[in-house]
């Protein structure tokens, strides 16, 4: 008989995992399709090595000593399931960033973590976080600039060009 303790709460619409505290020996937890967000708090589960959070409302964040993690279908995981405008390069940058933050992962989303990814994540993973540029409406103009100066692009002139 398998001694593992597994729990699957997929498609239940749960908004909290507070009731997991009595499951101290839990090793695998599947909480897909549960509307969980960044406010997710997991109790300390020392034996937890696999957590799947597919199709929730997470933009980023996860516990640290995990070996297996799946975030497919969440905003934090830039793939074509969530955003058709994302490509494989975006997804690979995401993998490097996650592996930088969670270096013990052996499996991320649908793929095994490679040695090359771990090396790259260690070197450059901190710089791989995908950020959205601010739109023109979000940016506040610098104080003291006139309206025409606010909208003008920066132009660098070499000496003698004026």
From TrEMBL:
Gene3D superfamilies: Ribonuclease Inhibitor. Residues 145-162 have a biased composition (Polar residues). GO terms for biological process: melanocyte differentiation. Residues 131-162 are annotated as: Disordered. InterPro entries: LRMDA, LRR_dom_sf. This is Leucine-rich melanocyte differentiation-associated protein. It comes from Takifugu flavidus.
């Amino acid at each position: 008989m398998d001694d593992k303790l597994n729990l699957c709460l997929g498609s239940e619409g749960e908004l909290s995992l507070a009731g997991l505290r009595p499951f101290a020996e839990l090793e695998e937890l599947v909480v897909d399709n549960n509307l969980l967000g960044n406010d997710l708090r997991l109790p300390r589960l020392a034996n937890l090595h696999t957590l799947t959070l597919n199709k929730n409302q997470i933009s980023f964040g996860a516990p640290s000593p995990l070996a297996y993690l799946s975030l497919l279908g969440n905003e934090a995981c830039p793939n074509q399931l969530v955003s058709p405008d994302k490509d494989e390069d975006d997804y690979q940058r995401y993998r490097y960033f996650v592996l930088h933050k969670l270096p013990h992962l052996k499996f991320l989303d649908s793929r095994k973590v490679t040695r090359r990814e771990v090396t790259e994540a260690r070197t450059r993973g901190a710089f791989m976080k995908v950020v959205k540029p601010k739109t023109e409406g979000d940016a506040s103009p610098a104080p003291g600039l006139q309206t025409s100066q606010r909208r003008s692009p920066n132009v660098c002139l070499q000496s003698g060009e004026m």
